[in-house]
Structures are given as structure tokens and as C-alpha cells.
Design goal:
This protein is mostly beta strands. 7% of the residues lie in helices and 47% in strands.
């Protein structure tokens, strides 16, 4: 060994010796599990198209946890009463190809860990992130999952017995909007609503249809309804709002009213986005995303959030948003917080009463296409 090589080897021995001594004194790190408190009404999931759903607290901006989902999971559904979270998921044996298997996964609400899987027909409408592709009915027992192959149907699951009950064919109709007495509404392509009611065992007991109330060619309604205490709100591409209620065996669609006035139409304002509306029951306020655009720009992000007094059917405030915004969510608290999801960017939290920006979650970890509260 020549002198140069000897000096290099000696230098490395000197360098490594202290590190080896220090490493010997470090105890191996152990893996632990953090348990969440009982969910709060300010908590919400921000779900991206990659499958993951991050849990945040709008009151603090803190990230609390993450659900590791498949990319083929349209939405998640918390059930605080049972301390569970549900996700209808599709898996492939080779990751993105191979044999397909669909399951309803039950996650523990306190650890966000999977605790049970219920096998479903391999038909879930799994590609698009739609909040209303999964729904828990008012008996708090039967859960519905929307299927599309492209034939449309609904899978019914009994979450108490942890079993698949059966499949109901629903040609031409989509979405799952829970309604009174173990029922759900679906939006249909012929301009109607369909009501399906289940019996105590989860089988179809009745099927009803409304009269047509919109024209899919001239002014279709968005497939992003929002719940209100009496039923559901549906908005059309031209900004008309329909209030829908179920009374016994009747589907009642109210007379439409407009989110836009003449000045708005003249300026080219339109509503749109991925999750374009939200509602606060206590104050009976709506928030809707709006932008200036041409016809058929209904999927464009909002540049403003409009606060609407639903009772008076008029706009009472406008929020200029920091960036193009795809979705909104309102916490069901006495002092409501508005969460606005900027496309590819931060989540912004506002005081809904004052419209003041409180905080921004700079790196939410997902491009939030769905905001889901508790």
C-alpha cells in the first residue's frame, strides 16, 4: 500500500469511528399508533384524485391524519355514531391492471386504519370523484354504492351484519341522495328524479318517478347537489336553483329561482366548479362558486364565492378568492367556517359571517376535488 492510499484509509477510519460509537447508543425507533379524539364538526376530509384523503381541522388548519385509499375511490363517508368511515374501493391484482376486486372498506374513526372489508360486485363507478356515489340511509344501517359499467345500478350493504345485500338496477339514473324512510333519490337523464325505498332487509320496496323538471339539452342541472334540512338543492348551468323534498310517496320539486340577476348575466357571470355549492343549515346560507365565462364553462373554477340568503333568495356577500377555486365546504358550527379549495394549491378558511380570511393551509398534500365534512 502506498502512502497516499494509507492516508485515505486512515482518514476514513477516523471519520467513521465516532459515528459508530454514537449509533451504538441510539435506541431503535419503534412504530406507534396515534389515536384521534372524537370527531369535531370543524373536521373535514380533502380527497384528491390520487386516492388519498387528508383529514384537517378547519378551526386550526392542522392536519390530523390520512386515509390511504386506492385511486379508484369516488368518496369517503364518515359515520361518527359508529366511529367508522366507509370507502367503496376498487383494487387490481397488478396495481393498474389484472383481476379487479371491489370492496366496501370500513376504517376505524380513531386510528384511520382499515378494520373490515365487504366484497362488492366489481361495478363501482370508481374513476370520478363524486361525493354522492356513496350514501348511508336514515336507518343508519343500509349503505348504498353507485355502480356504472356503463350500465347503472346500486349495491346495498348492511353495515351492521357486514354483508352485501343485493344490487338494484337503475338505468339512466345516478347519484345517491338519502331521503326519509330508508330511501334515496337519483338524478335521471330524462330530466326527472327517481326515488327508491328499501324494506327493513335492504331490498327494493318501492320505486317512484317525478315529472320532468329540467331539460338536459337547454339547461341541465349539476350533478353536485347539496343537502338542506328539508331535502336537497339542485342548481342548473344557467344558475337556476331547484329545492327538492320527499313527502311520503311524492317527490316535490319547487319552483326554480335564480342565483344571477340581470347585471350578472350581462357581465357574463356563471356558476361552476367541481364542488360548487355548500349550505349552512343554522343560518340558512348558501355559498356558490362563480366565474366570468362563456357557455359550457360549468367545470371552470370559481374566482368569487357568493354568499346567498336562501330564504330571501338573494346574494348578500361576495368573496374575491385568492386563486381559481374548485370546491367549497361549510362547517356545521354556530360560527361557520368556509373552506375553499384552490385548484392545485392551498385550502383557504374564512369566517362565513364576516367573510374574513382566517388562515390558509399552504400544502394540503392533495389537489382537493372533494371536501367531506363530519
Amino acid at each position: 500500500m502506498n502512502a497516499g492510499v494509507f492516508r485515505i484509509c486512515l482518514a476514513w477510519l477516523i471519520f467513521l469511528s465516532p459515528a459508530t460509537s454514537v449509533q451504538a447508543d441510539i435506541a431503535p425507533e419503534s412504530v406507534g399508533i396515534t389515536t384521534l379524539d372524537a370527531p369535531r364538526p370543524t373536521w373535514f376530509f380533502a380527497k384528491g384524485i390520487d386516492g388519498s384523503a387528508n383529514l384537517f381541522d378547519a378551526a386550526t388548519g392542522e392536519m390530523l391524519g390520512l386515509l390511504s385509499l386506492t385511486p379508484w375511490t369516488p368518496a369517503v363517508l364518515p359515520n361518527p355514531r359508529r366511529g367508522e368511515i366507509y370507502a367503496a374501493e376498487t383494487y387490481y391484482s397488478r396495481g393498474v391492471r389484472g383481476d379487479r376486486s371491489d370492496v366496501l372498506t370500513v376504517y376505524a374513526g380513531d386510528t384511520l386504519a382499515p378494520v373490515h372489508e365487504i366484497e362488492l360486485p366489481a361495478k363501482i363507478a370508481a374513476v370520478l370523484p363524486f361525493r354522492h356515489y356513496i350514501a348511508l340511509l336514515d336507518d343508519d344501517r343500509h349503505l348504498a354504492v353507485f355502480n356504472m359499467t356503463p350500465a347503472q345500478s346500486v349495491s346495498i350493504v348492511d353495515i351492521e351484519t357486514r354483508r352485501f345485500v343485493g344490487e338494484i338496477s337503475t338505468p339512466g339514473c345516478a347519484l345517491l341522495l338519502p331521503s326519509p324512510d330508508r330511501a334515496f333519490l337519483m338524478l335521471c337523464g330524462d330530466g326527472t328524479l327517481q326515488l327508491l325505498r328499501l324494506d327493513r332487509s335492504g331490498q327494493e320496496a318501492a320505486r317512484l318517478r317525478s315529472a320532468p323538471f329540467f331539460d338536459v339539452e337547454t339547461d341541465p342541472v349539476f350533478d353536485r347537489p347539496v343537502a338542506v334540512p328539508q331535502g336537497w338543492l339542485l342548481a342548473s348551468y344557467e344558475g337556476n336553483v331547484f329545492e327538492v323534498t320527499v313527502r311520503g310517496n311524492d317527490i316535490v320539486v319547487g319552483e326554480p329561482w335564480s342565483l344571477l340577476d340581470d347585471a350578472d348575466r350581462e357581465a357574463g357571470w356563471r356558476i361552476g366548479g367541481a364542488q360548487l355549492m355548500a349550505h349552512h343549515a343554522g343560518l340558512d346560507l348558501m355559498v356558490v362558486l362563480a366565474h366570468v365565462g362563456e357557455i359550457d364553462t360549468h367545470e371552470e373554477p370559481g374566482t368569487e364565492a357568493w354568499v346567498i340568503d336562501r330564504q330571501a333568495q338573494r346574494r348578500i356577500a361576495r368573496i374575491t378568492l385568492p386563486g381559481p377555486t374548485m370546491g367549497v365546504h361549510i362547517t356545521p358550527t354556530a360560527d361557520p367556517l368556509l373552506v375553499a379549495a384552490e385548484r392545485g394549491g392551498p385550502l383557504h378558511v374564512y369566517d362565513l359571517r364576516s367573510t374574513r380570511l382566517l388562515r390558509s393551509i399552504a400544502e394540503p398534500g392533495v389537489d382537493a376535488l372533494t371536501l367531506q365534512g363530519f
